[in-house]
Amino acid sequence: MNEGSSIIAALGAGSGINFTQLAEDLAEASFGPQREALEVRNDDLQARISVASQLRSTLTELSSALGDRIRLGDLSPQISLGNSSVARVSIGAGTSPSGNYSLEVSQLADSQTLVSQSFGSGSDLVGEGSLRIRFGTVSGTSFTQDTNQAALDIAVSATDTLDDVAASITSQSEGALEAYVVQGTAGAQLVVKGQEGAANGFVLEPTSTGAGPAGVPGDLSYLGWDPASDSGELRATAQDALFELDTVPISSPSNTVTGLPEGFTLELTGTNVGAPTELSFNTDTGAIEAVMGDLAAALNDVVNFLNEEASPGGTLSNDPGVRELRRDLANLTSEIVIPGAGDGEPSTLADLGLSLTRDGTFQIDSDRLSRTLTDNADAAAAMFTTGPTGVF
Questions:
Q1: What is the per-residue pLDDT across 135-188, written as a single tens digit (0 to 9) for each?
Q2: Whose CB has fewer CB within 10 Å in the chain, the N or C terminal residue?
Q3: Bridge partner residues of 152 (DSSP)
Q4: Exposed/middle/buried for 59, CB within 10 Å: 0-12, 13-18, 19+?
C-alpha cells in the first residue's frame, strides 16, 4: 500500500463518513455561538440605527416646517401700503420691521436710451475707426463724466456692420449697456440703452479712419452723439429715483431701494406727488398663537417617541444620545433665543408661553403668551425670523 492510500484508510475512507459535513459540524460547534452573538448585535444595531433615523427625520421635518412658516410669510409682519401702484414692499430674511411710514415718490429711476440716425439695414457698413463711450451725467446740453466708470473703447473694422457694432457694444460693456438694431419705418436704427441712475448716462464719441465724407452713413462719425448736438436721438435721460420717507428726501440710482429702516426693501413702480401714502407693518398675533400651539404639539410628538423607544427594553434604552436630547428638551423653554432683547422684551420660548409639565411634555401657558403679545407684539414677531437668532 502506498503512503496516500494509508492516509485515506486512516481517515476512514470507504467507511461511509461524510468528512465535509463533519468539518461543518466542527466549525459550527466551535464558532456558532460567536456568530449568533454577532448576528444578534448586528440586528440590535440596525434597529437602533433605524429608530435614530426616524427621530432625526422627525426633528428635521419639525425644523423645516417651522422655517417654511416663517419664510412664507404668515409669521412675518403684515405689509400694508395705501397706494399699491407706488411701490412693492418686501422684507428680507432675518428682519422684522414694525410701525408706520409715509411714502411720497416724485420721480422713478430711469436709464438713458439713444436711437441713432437711420441706415438702410442692419447689414450696412458703418465705417472703420474706433468708438469711445464715456459714462456720466447728462443734464440739458451738458455732460459731466463719472471718473469712477471706465470709458469703453470699441475697435470698428472696415467690414463691421451696424449689427456688428450693436453686438460689440453689448458684449464689451459687460452689462452696462444693451444695444440692438431695429428695422423701423425710417430704416434701420441702432438703439443703445444704459442702466438706471443719473450717473449712468453716456456719450458716443467715434473717431473715423475712413476716407469717405464725414457725418454720413458709411462713416463712423455718423454714430456720434452728445447732448449739445442732440437732434432727437435722446429718447430717455438717465435719472435717479426721488422719494420721501416720513418727509425725509432720499435718492436712489435704482428703483429697487435697499438700506431702509429695519431692513425692508422698496421696488418703486409709480409716483404720487402731493399725495403721500401710508406704509405700515403689523404683527399677526393670531398667527403667532397658532404656531406656538403647533410647536408644542410637534415637540410632544418627539417626547412621546422618545418615551416609547427609550423605555426599559426599548430600542434606544440607555442610549447616551437620547439622554442628551432629553436634557436639551428640558432646557428648551428657558433657552435664550434673542440675546440682544431689551428689558421687558421676550427672549425665550417661555416668554411665548411654552412650558414644560412634570411628565416632560409641553403645553402653552395662554396667559403668559397673551401678556407678551399685548405688551410686546413687535418684539414677539421679531423672534420668528430665519436669521442667526430667534425661534427658528
A1: 999 999 999 999 999 999 999 999 999 999 999 999 999 999 999 999 999 999
A2: N
A3: 133
A4: middle
